[in-house]
Design goal:
The chain is of the alpha+beta class. It contains two helices and ten strands; from the N terminus they run H-E-E-E-E-E-E-E-E-E-E-H. It has helices at about 5-30, 160-170, and strands spanning about 35-40, 40-45, 55-60, 70-75, 100-105, 110-115, 120-125, 125-130, 135-140, 150-155. A seven-stranded antiparallel beta sheet has the order 1-2-3-4-10-5-8. A three-stranded antiparallel beta sheet has the order 7-6-9, with no helix packed on it.
């Protein structure tokens, strides 16, 4: 389901916000990003705001000639979310040219595709496929500050510039 706003208006707002993220990430990347160890793997984590979300690229776009990339995302139950009560949530968005495949490795994923009133859930071993153009939000539905961690494996096809976005998100 596409957003009920004109596509051009959405893209201007989205890319304007993305530019702010990129500029902010470039400005603060040296002082704010740090590599941390979790399950004997290195993750990128925001060191200053401690947003309780970690990212790790498993397969880079250079490894697949741009066909896809895979990132592992760890969202703790106390992670900051743009939507109140939904830890790790981002703004509703869609990818015009990418399919996003989300595999739940641990915890409980809350999500909606299309309208926010249709909240769904997926648990360990389940997959959610989001087609290009479908508005969506993902978040940790594991039970608030005393809940469980959510570990996802997210594949974006084609890769485009998604890796850089995750690096930038961790840097602000």
């Amino acid at each position: 389901m596409k957003l009920p706003i004109p596509k051009m208006m959405f893209e201007v707002c989205f890319f304007g916000g993305l530019m702010i993220l990129v500029i902010g990430g470039v400005q603060y990347q040296v002082s704010r990003k740090q590599r941390t160890n979790f399950n004997d793997q290195l993750y990128i984590e925001d060191a200053k705001t401690v947003n309780s979300t970690r990212y790790r690229v498993l397969v880079g776009k250079d490894d697949t000639a741009g066909e896809y990339f895979i990132v592992e995302v760890l969202i703790r139950p106390m992670a900051y979310g743009l939507i109140q009560g939904k830890p790790g949530s981002d703004a509703a968005h869609y990818h015009t040219h990418q399919q996003e495949r989300v595999r739940v490795k641990q915890g409980k994923l809350g999500y909606y595709i299309g309208h926010h009133s249709h909240v769904q859930a997926a648990e360990a071993g389940e997959e959610v496929v989001i087609k290009p153009g479908e508005a969506h939000v993902l978040f940790n539905a594991g039970g608030g500050s005393n809940g469980s961690e959510l570990l996802l494996e997210v594949t974006h096809t084609p890769a485009r510039h998604g890796e850089a976005l995750y690096e930038t998100l961790a840097g602000i």
